[in-house]
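Margin note from the TA: students keep mixing up input and output lines. Inputs are the sequences; the output is the structure of the whole complex. Example:
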Amino acid sequence: MKVTNIRKTFGGVTALDGVNMEIDKGKMTMLIGPNGSGKTTLINVVSGFYKPDEGQVLFEGRDITGKAPNEVSRQGLIRTFQVPAPFIKLSVMENLLLASEGNPGESFLRAPLRSRWIKKESEIYNRAGRVLELLNLRLPDQLAGELSGGQLKLLEVGRALMTNARMVALDEPASGLNPTLAHKIFEHLDEIKRDFALTLLIIEHRLDIALQYVDYVYAMANGSVISHGKGEEVMNDPKVIEGYLGGTCT
Amino acid sequence: MLDSTGLFVLNLLASLAPFLIVTVSLNLEYGYAGIPNFGKTLAVAGGAFVAGVIPGRFLAFLFGIGKNLSYIDDNKQIVSAINRQLVTDPVLSIGIIILTLIMAVLIGALLGLLIAYPVARLRTDYLGMTFLAFGQVILVIGNNFPPLVGGTLGVSVPDPFAFVSVYSIFDLLPGEMRNLFVITFMSIVALLVFLFARRLTRSPLGRVLRAIRDDENSALALGKDVQRNRIIIMIFSSAIAALAGALYAMYTANVFSTTYSRTTWTFWPWVMVILGGAANDLGIVSGTFIFVAVRQIISYYREFFEPILPFNIVWLDTLLLGLALLFILIYRPEGLIREKPIKTIKIESLSVEESKKASIKQTSGFREELKKIIETLLKLPKKKETEEI
């Protein structure tokens, strides 16, 4: 994915000020930066929730700038939300089944004809079973509204896996989790990345944990990229230390 | 002749059938898609107006009746002349019934399309208020524009069911024969509508609608076309509701716009859905049944209630249902029967190997659901998986 010169303002506030980024296929890329530096805004722009004022988003060579969120996700780019947004009155299983694309039973004309969608539905069912197994989340019949915070985070990841996504943008997948669970989430992500050949873009503040898993890091501050490179390089960049880590490492 | 029990059951079905159609329709909108339609009466009245406007004029033209008369001013005269001819012609009568229902469905769909416009742009309270206004507008037009359905005086609807009264079974009187036939017909239509809506929602589509209701942005992020689904459900449910209006108008053989008041065809269906449990088929059936039965019992035993009540009996049903609504909202806001996850496929275990082997069985539907509800009502200890990650 390639992001060129993205600008986004809200009234007088410039949230993104000419962001350039290149995310390699099949890699886990992390986006760091202080609160308000524009990380989530960038994901919102990339996933179609916000329209950028300027700039271009290319995904697998195709221009997806300003497309509607459902169109972007159909192109294979899925995002999760910082605050998990499950369908609370649906079971875990239903939450997963929903995420799958191209189910003929979701059309009004074919929904009443069971025979038209049952084959696809059972395929999706099996896939959902595997995803639950993979995430170690064996509660298919639990209502999503009754899950714990950590389980919800896993469900978000699970939903992304149910799609035919080739790239997933995760907004703080490990926030609010204890270190063991956070490690587990990243282990899962690493495993998934390899198994499904996924490209991952991750916003995360838990640097101690995340850095062990990621391939590449972008650091943002005040709406622009201030540094990028391998984890070590970025962490030792004086601008990052100044802007994000608070200058304590000097 | 019908005995009092027969009459009771028949009258019960006569209100149950049209209300069930309306609650099924409201449940699709509110229960599944989360659209707060406070203008339910728009589509219902639309369907009834179709029955009041089209068949009468069409038949008058066909039979050459009332060429020098005004259809509205000399309505009684024209319609009784039509009925005298219609009673001898079962084929035409059946044709008229079908034609009226098809027209009602089309007009209903059109009205649905009309209100789909704000649905696509507004949310929650604003949308609810817009609906309320839409529902009121059609009643004001009906009441003040006589050429439509006779304004305050209403219009008679030709009775395409009259031909049945010629035949007689079980020594029924002609009027009873006719009512028995109409009510049976309405009940069958209601049942078909219910079963179709159930089939429609117990599918991946039902899941998508509930997801849109729970979290629109998440649904968008997963590639669901929220707008399109909301608009289609609006059109579909309005078409269904219009069917109820047309059936009811044909059953009562007249249309007064005051009959299709906000209270009766918007608020009552809302109470039924909330009482029974939104997004649960069994829930809305029980909600509708309880509501209709309570009203009917009160009206049947009014002599019994009247002396012991300190107020006029006409307020009793409204009062009781208001109280019931309060209690439901305080103690069981999900309704008597809660929403359940929909299982499109039944697979016992979900471990990797087993799910591959598991056979796909048709869900057994109602019986299973009923069993589960009895279980929960009896609060049988149920094993709950508490495996934490």
